[in-house]
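During the second half of the funding period, the structural biology subgroup turned its attention to how the target accommodates small molecules. The most pressing case was iron/sulfur cluster, which had performed well in the primary screen but for which no bound structure existed. We therefore specified the complex as follows and requested a full 3D prediction, including the ligand pose.
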Amino acid sequence: MDGSGLPEIRSTCPYCGVGCGVLLRPDGEGGIAVRGDPEHPANHGRLCSKGSALGETVGLDHRFLSPVVDGEQSSWDDALQLVADRFSDTIARHGPDSVAFYVSGQLLTEDYYIANKLMKGFIGSANIDTNSRLCMASSVAGHKRAFGTDTVPGTYEDLDEADLVVLVGSNLAWCHPVLYQRVLAARKSRGTKIVVIDPRRTASCNDADLHLALQPGSDVALFNRLLSEIYESGAVDPGFVAHTNGFDSALDAARNEQASVTGLNDRQISEFCRLWIATEKVVTIYSQGVNQSSSGSDKVNAILNCHLATGRIGTPGCGPLSVTGQPNAMGGREVGGLANMLACHLDLENSDHRAAVRQFWDAPAIPEAPGLKAVDMFQAVGDGRIKALWIIHTNPAVSMPDADAVRDAIAACPFTVVSDITGATDTARLADVLLPATAWAEKDGTVTNSDRTISRQRKVIDAPGQARPDWDILAEVARRMGFTSAFDYASPAEIFREYAALSKVAAQLGRDFDVSGLSNISDTHYDDMEPRRWPVTSTREGGRFFGDGAFFHPDGKARFIPVRFKPPAARTEPRFPFRLNTGRLRDQWHTMTRTSLSPRLSAHLSEPFLDIHPADATALGLSAADLVRVTSPIGSSILRARITDSVQQGNVFAPIHWTGETAPSARIDALVAPVTDPVSGQPESKAGVVSVTRF
Ligand code: SF4
């Protein structure tokens, strides 16, 4: 307690997948003070600039406070009945696959669970996908191919114990700053070495022992070379490889690879391989630079192959670690928020899994085929196959590839519902029905971070106006569609118990995700729940996976996946001579709906820009701060040129955050072609092609 008379409440930061614990003290007037939670295992009290500024983002200026139908204020009763009637009518006329939900890693696990249950169990379509598809779908696919399940093997404690941390396609210093601080602490205490593999020289290179500025998209070739060197140097662990299949095929593919496509010289590659092989405790962290690629799944498996070959997985200080962009991307994966998954890591394509979920939910039908993944979903909206669409806490009119086409598709959709906290987004302005949802500090539920730790997000301040929790909105629409008893929930705790009970069914079917130890959790214990790393069962809690060589494929073995380098789908050519890399800034978040409310965050880098190499700038006659028109085969933007050798000659970089609201001419995803990885469906957001001209 302090002078305000109100106690601090433990909750979780709503930004990145690090999942830092925060202590929130409401001031009694709608504001909150924020500090890091010293007892949270993800951050031990640390916060980054975004987390520290959370208190500046809870004002009401940007909120809409009551439902809106066709631009007019409405009652909840009328708005929800309209949503239920239009979805029911569309399904009756055109079938269940004529409707879709596009949701978000901003949803809490309980919200996500209800959305997934409604679409897959009761509407009878798998057309629910999430903006996490843009972030980490390739990691999911890579994990499932190698391990049999989407399992993160290690924990954040591995960063404290590693002697080498390799960052692949990850600007950890800006995008997961608290994890980066943890790596730096290990560097100070035990001399941990840091290697950065990234075409750009980012802030994460400042402390690196080695920066490999490889050609965009060539990661597979580099890790194939590493696998070959592991074999040649006798570093393969035959005891561990006995728990796997496919090593010889993967090695054959690796040995036939030409590492020269990386653009790195032999000395650089040899130095990396020597360091990796000679260091027993290696953690390889990877993020969007790996995932957002037309060969993202192959890149993930190229990394996993090296850890499997050496047995450097699931033991202290060892393993691959996929870090997610959003606060609850992992929770979304766990509840089956992707169009090709069922809840609790059960598989939609597996008839036993479908039958088990159908029985558990007492559902009329579970679809047999995967639904439309994000890019395909909006193409189906555009060509009229999807006739009713519900978008929840995300802004696809800005953030999807080919964003102009997505914006036009949503505008032309016969019926679009948007649930969000603000009506001032490019997407919300296109909605037929706007539903005011509760925001971060008003919500109650759970999230899972990148190392499987489930944390409580707690309500700290009252919801303004008529805003309601997402699970409540979704369940009410479900009941009005006639699914009464299956959606009769009174609280997020009740939903969590059901979900935990379903995980016991999943575990009996050989799945990894098991939180059955929480299936009888009382409301009080749910309210008080400490961070818990899954699995949570009657006999086990937390820990690492796979150190014992037990995997989740039917034969209990892991799989090596033979992979070969594939260049990015779009080729540079005289009309589009530059390779466009897109990414995030330190102090902004997604499309800035929250972070732009903080003056100090907006002060970091305050306008959209394009980084271009000095030689390219000279060739184009550009001076620093010139405006440039950036044109791709599908769109055009106007940006401020920053001349810097942090990008390679022939490459340019632009941040993703600005929108039609904040900078109408700088919508970067309007430049990104809707090309996807054929395995994961993740768009190739980091390797487009563009021309640059002075504006
Ligand atoms: Fe929030 Fe991520 Fe920063 Fe932690 S590192 S405070 S979770 S944005």
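Two results from this model are relevant to the next phase. The two ends are 57 Å apart (CA to CA). The first helix runs from residue 49 to 52.
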